[in-house]
Amino acid sequence: MSPPPTPATDTRSRILDAAARLFHEQGFNATGVSTILREAGVNPGSLYNLFPSKDALLAAVLERYTELLHPVVMAPVEARTSDPVERVFALLQQYREWFSPLDFRLGCPIGNLALEVADSHPEIRPLIKANFDGWIAYVRKWLDEAGDRLPADLDRDQLAGTVLTIMEGGLMQARSSRSAAAYDASVSQLRSYFDFLLTRGAARPG
Amino acid sequence: MSPPPTPATDTRSRILDAAARLFHEQGFNATGVSTILREAGVNPGSLYNLFPSKDALLAAVLERYTELLHPVVMAPVEARTSDPVERVFALLQQYREWFSPLDFRLGCPIGNLALEVADSHPEIRPLIKANFDGWIAYVRKWLDEAGDRLPADLDRDQLAGTVLTIMEGGLMQARSSRSAAAYDASVSQLRSYFDFLLTRGAARPG
Amino acid sequence: MSPPPTPATDTRSRILDAAARLFHEQGFNATGVSTILREAGVNPGSLYNLFPSKDALLAAVLERYTELLHPVVMAPVEARTSDPVERVFALLQQYREWFSPLDFRLGCPIGNLALEVADSHPEIRPLIKANFDGWIAYVRKWLDEAGDRLPADLDRDQLAGTVLTIMEGGLMQARSSRSAAAYDASVSQLRSYFDFLLTRGAARPG
Amino acid sequence: MSPPPTPATDTRSRILDAAARLFHEQGFNATGVSTILREAGVNPGSLYNLFPSKDALLAAVLERYTELLHPVVMAPVEARTSDPVERVFALLQQYREWFSPLDFRLGCPIGNLALEVADSHPEIRPLIKANFDGWIAYVRKWLDEAGDRLPADLDRDQLAGTVLTIMEGGLMQARSSRSAAAYDASVSQLRSYFDFLLTRGAARPG
DNA sequence: TATGAATGAGGGTTCATTCAT
DNA sequence: CATGAATGAACCCTCATTCAT
To answer: Which of A131, C148, D53, D201 is 20 to 30 A from B89, alpha carbon to alpha carbon?
Structure first.
């Protein structure tokens, strides 16, 4: 199913790891190919054998993020929280735990790229959207699983998208202030909204 | 109060205008100083006479955004909408009207810079935060003006920050999908939350 | 005789002082006009009113060194040492005392310029030569004053030039090693040569 | 032992040759990297692939001078002169023959750099010192080979250093006057000193 | 396939100098 | 005479990428 772990595979992985890390830490434009080469311990020829361009490498990084969405982002949430509504907040809490030790540096790697390259790299934008769509789909699934605890007339797609909005918008502000407060504020208001929705869901006519 | 419109002032303005536009359109790192110079019709010595570095130019651009917050962003909203709660949504609607004709390209210039340079430019981060703080302060003022139409136990600072979160997070998704839907979704959920809050406010014990 | 101490004279002096110091500390090519302006607290227009170019400023600096040769370099030596032969070594000792506290940084300001600009600035070379000639003339005068203590067939011009050679060559090596040893070595050998010459002078036929 | 003459080696040599020549002709600061590139027929990326900076290129130039000290400077002297004392003056004569046709332009490439960059480039100074030390070591070796023709109590290290002092100081003056006279004067006085020393050596107690 | 030198356009910035006020 | 913005060539260096071995 997967290719054998040839040296080339190792090289490819090392490049992808280095590129993903550096794009996250420094941004796409601020990361030179030579830095990726150095950090991956690879020569330009090798990189350009495997990836036709820096843009193609970015595409591969985003594809990898798509693959990692479940094992890295969603599975841990589902493992430690079973209640579907609580999974929403466990997910938001997970980002807080990731970035709080860094004083909210770095931010969401997908969100960063969304704002940096969405306009300039038309071929990349769909890959960003795919990551967002996948993320939202998990939240949407949980909202579905909440069943009639949530109001029947609730637009669950909209709400799932709003959860991502809260995460990205909250993280942006936390990063700008180097403080959890802005993130926590938005999450707290979302919680308040969910409390209201759950009340309405519970109050449905029998 | 303001410096006289000497040639230098003109040059400074032309540089700031060009830089602000290009940073918005292409991002900070993707914008070369030479492009700014060409678009402003200025030569390098002039720019570096007025701004000690590209980073200092970025700082000046952000200070200008702070100055423009009221006349460009908030005053039009307050002019066309008098109800304080409706002003919140008029503000969000204004962004929609700005970016919808562009298929949600560009995005918020402050938000873009927040994700691109907050970590790499420590001296810039406070200027981004100042823009966010100023934006939030207007929303907070409107929430105050809503008085007891909103619940007494509502944390209005949190809610004001969440309005910015909705704008930034919604715009990010709209940009990634080139569609208003994601933005509208988050605004719509915020409206639903406000409806709930107004209901609770109205239901206060008399 | 001298112009009244107008502000312009002050400005001129401040510029010359700053330029002389910076050319000495950093060299001519490594010193930017803007640095001179900053250190002198002067605007470009002012400098270029008084000196038509950076090269002309260099010429003025060298003329000033010529003026300062007696009061700064030779007078102190003549004041503290009366024996003409000992004045030669007091002069060499004076350079040692100037540069030893600096670990032999900086070196001779004239010698530095001699090697840096003699070829590229034909109009400057004579000014350097004039400084060297003036310096040698003092030594030559002392050798004359030594009268028949030195051999009659000694070429005193040659010997005076050699004293400068010892100073410049010794300082160059001291600067390269950050140590007095190389300078002292050459001076010590010169002393040995003088001892021989004085012996021969004393042994002249009666 | 030496790397194969790959294209890279050729490029490296072309760059080093051009840089050494231009640094000698114009000085370090007055030589632009672009001039080196043009003269070497190389583009910037190539140079910076082989040398991390202009300063590193200067270091390599000085290392090359160290390598060339024997084949270019000392071997010819030893080839044409066998008497060790005469080798000292053959060496000084060789410099005269090199620079006399140029009217004593250019000067000693090491000496020039000593005065231009010793203070500003701490990593370069030891390389200059190494060149001087190597030069002096040859002279010192010849003085040793002169055995008891020279006085037993002579400090031969000091004298060897003084030979370099004479060369550098004499060349500096020759360059400033565009004339051999100043150089010849110092060499002549050194000859006179050597004559004295040889006399004293010969007069040792039997 | 791996290597690392070569490519050459472009990066941000400083240079000495001029000129309008 | 002072001011400081304007000039534009040149500064050193890095970029993403290609290519010969």
So the answer is: A131
From the CA of C34, how many Å to the C1' of E21? 21
Q: Could you tell me the CA-to-CA distances from C151 to A122, C88, C147, C156, C192 in Å, in that order? A: 92, 17, 9, 9, 15
Q: Which residue has the tokens 């090798």?
A: A46
Nearest nucleotide by C1' position to the D41 CA atom:
E6
How many angstroms separate the CA atoms of C91 and C183, rounded?
A: 13
Q: Which of A4-18, A130-144, D110-124 has the lowest mean pLDDT?
A: A4-18
Place domain D1-51 in its CATH homologous superfamily.
Homeodomain-like (1.10.10.60)
Residue B3: CB less than 7 A from any atom in strand E = no
Query: Chain D, 11-70: which CBs lie within 7 Å of strand E?
Result: 11-12, 42-46, 49-50
**Which residue in C26, C29, C115 is closest to D111 by CB distance?**
C115
Kindly report the average pLDDT of chain C as a whole number.
94
**CATH C-level class of B62-202:** mainly alpha
Residue in A162, A163, A177, A196 to test binding to B, most B beta-carbons within 10 Å: A162
Q: Residue B202 corresponds to which tokens in the numbers above?
A: 């109205």
- Residue whose entry in the numeric block shows the structure tokens 């970015």: A58
Domain ranges of chain D: 1-51, 61-202
Please write the tens of the pLDDT for every residue from B96-148. Answer: 999 999 999 999 999 999 999 999 999 999 999 999 999 999 999 999 999 99
Low-confidence ranges of chain C (pLDDT < 50): 1-4, 206
Question: Does residue A13 surpass a pLDDT of 90?
Answer: yes
What is the CATH code of the structural domain delimited by A63-202?
1.10.357.10
- A11 CB neighbours strand E below 7 A: yes
Domain D61-202 has CATH 1.25.40.340: no
